[in-house]
Design the sequence.
């Protein structure tokens, strides 16, 4: 089956994007180069096509209550116009997916899901939702752009009449960008400030070109999947399928803060309460290598010559200039300064646990 294309496919080709298949979509992995794009986001701004993400809407009486029983975080504690990061869990407490829920009102919640899980998530939510509100897959009705970096808000403001600085972090508003109606959410996946912009697919290409033109004097560049991955890893933002999956829980992944145990119920709550009482048998930690090498997804983690864990994500950090990675290890190896080895091409390479996130914007 041929990969799907976003409404920005022609723009990617026109701007020299190197296209690859990702989660069933044809998307640019890079334009000028991963390191250059990564540094542009850290120092100025970058523009990403994230139209492959899925959107599921809960609408009608009982929408908030129904959605809230499916996610770990608490939509009751959010205001209208606020977004929350949450987990969809199975009964064993493992991740069905990690999602962002946008609360428009008690009768309308939009849930943004990962592209690789979009069909699975929609089916899961439909199957587990209580009768009442409509649960609808609106993915085909949206394209999504992300502008990220210290100059991102200023660049986007050139195209907006609304004061975008009034939209707080993890809040959103329905505004016009370049005269086109969008949902502008002050969220992102890079560790930098910026916006994720939900727009009509027919408006996506014009918005993309308008934002690139507005940002060019400030150093804005189009960015691909490669920079998106290295940026999110520096900020220790989890990637589904690497750092979290249906066999790992939020407590193991260091995401206990998105679990609100004071909620009456959510799928997976009993399993997490048991794990919290007993203590997780493994935890996700950040580490750097103290010898030469680059850690990669799937590399074994060794202690006393035996495998005790696995690297979930790893790269040479473009910002810090050191090899960084995430790995699940036993509790006794989780404290800062703990040491273990990562097996790279059959050889153990020394590593130590460090504080995360590896990078945090000033």
Sequence:
């Amino acid at each position: 089956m041929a990969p799907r294309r976003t409404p920005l496919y022609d723009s990617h080709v026109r701007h020299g994007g190197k296209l690859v298949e990702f989660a069933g979509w044809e998307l640019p992995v890079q334009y000028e180069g991963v390191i250059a794009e990564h540094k542009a986001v850290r120092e100025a701004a970058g523009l990403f096509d994230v139209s492959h993400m899925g959107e599921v809407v809960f609408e009608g009486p009982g929408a908030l209550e129904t959605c809230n029983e499916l996610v770990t975080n608490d939509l009751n504690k959010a205001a209208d116009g606020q977004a929350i990061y949450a987990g969809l869990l199975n009964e064993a407490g493992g991740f069905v997916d990690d999602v962002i829920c946008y609360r428009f009102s008690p009768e309308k919640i939009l849930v943004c899901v990962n592209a690789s899980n979009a069909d699975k998530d929609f089916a899961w939510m439909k199957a587990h939702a209580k009768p009442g509100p409509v649960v609808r897959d609106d993915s085909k009705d949206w394209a999504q752009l992300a502008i990220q970096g210290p100059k991102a808000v200023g660049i986007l403001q050139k195209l907006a009449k609304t004061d975008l600085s009034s939209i707080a972090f993890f809040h959103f508003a329905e505004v016009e960008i370049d005269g086109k109606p969008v949902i502008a959410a002050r969220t992102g996946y890079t560790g930098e400030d910026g916006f994720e912009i939900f727009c009509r697919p027919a408006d996506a290409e014009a918005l993309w070109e308008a934002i690139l033109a507005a940002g060019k004097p400030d150093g804005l560049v189009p960015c691909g999947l490669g920079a998106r991955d290295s940026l999110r890893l520096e900020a220790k933002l989890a990637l589904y399928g690497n750092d979290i999956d249906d066999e790992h829980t939020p407590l193991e992944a260091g995401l206990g803060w998105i679990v609100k145990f004071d909620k009456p119920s959510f799928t997976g709550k009993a399993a997490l309460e048991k794990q919290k009482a007993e203590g997780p048998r493994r935890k996700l930690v950040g580490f750097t290598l103290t010898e030469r090498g680059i850690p990669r997804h799937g590399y074994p983690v060794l202690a006393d010559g035996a495998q005790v864990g696995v690297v979930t994500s790893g790269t040479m950090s473009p910002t810090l200039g050191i090899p960084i990675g995430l790995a699940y290890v036993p509790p006794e190896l989780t404290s800062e300064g703990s040491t273990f080895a990562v097996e790279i091409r059959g050889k153990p390479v020394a590593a130590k646990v460090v504080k995360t996130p590896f990078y945090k914007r000033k």
Remarks:
- The longest strand covers residues 95-105.
- The mean pLDDT is 97.
- The chain has three domains: 4-45+142-234, 54-137, 281-354.
